[in-house]
Specification:
The protein has 145 residues and is α+β, with helices and mostly antiparallel strands. The chain has one domain: SH3 type barrels (Roll), CATH 2.30.30. Helices cover 28% and strands 38% of the residues. Strands 4-3-2-1-5-6-7 form a seven-stranded antiparallel beta sheet, with no helix packed on it.
């Protein structure tokens, strides 16, 4: 093999390695919340609710409102602005495995002091109320982190 081909080969290997090294893995988006597995919501007033989702109203992937059944059997109607954060069990069974494999590296960068890492490592998805600039207007929205 001549020197020119060797240089090209080494360059390609180094470029491939650098692309792989800088690649970032993302957790897949959650579109369906489980109506069987337990989720935990923290409301803005400090109330913590545990239970399951009956119905979630979304428009273009943005949560608008939902019906939540607590472990006590009470059904609560909530809007997205009522929720501070939530750990959601989703209905995709393959998601839990992806969360364990992909999420472990990404979770190292998060501020773990406010997250329940046990819930996340069990395949739950974390949502938090965040102020965003949405279509030119400041708005608080529940975003999947």
């Amino acid at each position: 093999m001549d020197m020119k081909k060797l240089q090209i080969l080494v360059t390609l290997i180094l470029m491939t390695g650098s692309f792989y090294g800088f690649a970032q893995a993302y957790l897949p988006a959650v579109y369906e919340f489980s109506s069987e597995k337990s989720s935990v919501l923290t409301l803005k007033n400090g109330t913590v609710l545990e239970g399951t989702f009956n119905q979630v109203d979304q428009a273009n992937g943005i949560i608008k409102s939902f019906s939540f059944k607590t472990v006590a059997g009470e059904t609560v109607q909530l809007k997205e602005e009522d929720v501070l954060n939530m750990y959601v069990a989703n209905s995709n069974t393959n998601y839990a495995e992806k969360a364990r494999t992909i999420g472990k590296d990404n979770m190292k960068a998060w501020d773990k002091s406010k997250l329940d890492m046990k819930k996340i490592s069990n395949g739950n998805t974390y949502f938090e109320q965040v102020e965003v600039d949405f279509r030119g207007k400041k708005r608080n929205m529940l975003l999947q982190l």
